[in-house]
Specification:
Length: about 260
């Protein structure tokens, strides 16, 4: 999806105001595909939660009521930030977050005659939390442009995890933890830190950064289970973030991963 968005033509946008955030909806056309974006501009010092809120807050939930002839894909979420307060770690967004969907029309010529309803349930938090529950009904013909092509390109390169990667990943369950093995074949990369943000809440401990060690040509990352987990997943699914050094520069990379888990 990210690659397809690079050639996007901007079409429409519409804004919605909340006491601590400003929400703008935008519509984009890329080749034969159309995308809709919810962009949240959040007041300084406040934050909005990710699909996994972590130890506090509630996940941001977005649901759509669509007319006949329109379908919409799952969310494409930007990389969240981990927050730690009093030893509790949560995942969310500060300042700005853009969530994308592919929207599919049976007949694109009818776009101007379609009303769509979007329901947002979340919390905007600082020292206190304010519920962010709103229903937005809009006609696609009312949406106007927000990003130019270069801005959108930078947004997708810097703020979204890469779904395509060449990492060799292996997951094994050892007692109260998962060891995620990453085979490192590059002599120019020295990985300095790892963070794993799980998609599902309550299965793994939420941490700012994961412990790891190097063994021969592999990195082994420790991902501890939550002691109150309800089940053992078949796959390790979430966002893997790593910082590494290359040619005297510090680089951040993020990947969306889904790794089968085996017992050892």
């Amino acid at each position: 999806m990210i690659k397809n968005l690079f050639g996007i033509i901007l079409i429409f946008s519409q804004a919605i105001v909340h006491p601590k955030t400003f929400v703008e909806l935008s519509l984009y056309k890329a080749d034969s595909k159309t995308y809709i974006c919810l962009n949240f501009t959040i007041e300084n010092g406040w934050h909005l939660y990710w699909l996994n809120s972590g130890d506090t807050g509630i996940p941001t939930e977005i649901t759509w009521n669509l007319p006949d002839g329109i379908e919409i894909s799952d969310e494409l979420w930007p990389i969240p930030k981990a927050f730690e307060v009093d030893g509790l770690v949560s995942y969310g967004y500060e300042n700005n977050a853009s969530i994308f969907y592919e929207i599919i029309f049976k007949d694109y010529s009818e776009i101007h005659n379609k009303d769509i309803t979007c329901k947002i349930n979340s919390l905007i938090c600082k020292d206190i939390c304010i519920p962010f529950d709103t229903v937005i009904t809009f006609n696609l013909s009312n949406l106007k442009s927000r990003f130019n092509q270069n801005e959108l390109k930078d947004l997708l390169n810097n703020q979204f995890p890469n779904k395509e990667h060449s990492l060799e990943l292996f997951g094994k369950i050892e007692g109260d933890k998962v060891l995620l093995e990453i085979k490192n074949n590059s002599e120019n990369e020295t990985i300095e830190s790892f963070s794993f943000f799980p998609f599902e809440n309550g299965i793994f401990k939420n941490v700012l950064a994961n412990e790891f060690y190097k063994e021969l040509e592999s990195y082994l990352i420790k991902i501890e289970f939550d002691p109150f987990r309800t089940h053992i997943p078949e796959k390790l699914e979430g966002i893997l973030i790593l910082f590494y050094s290359e040619n005297n520069s510090r680089i951040k990379k993020s990947f969306e991963i889904s790794v089968p888990l085996k017992y050892y």
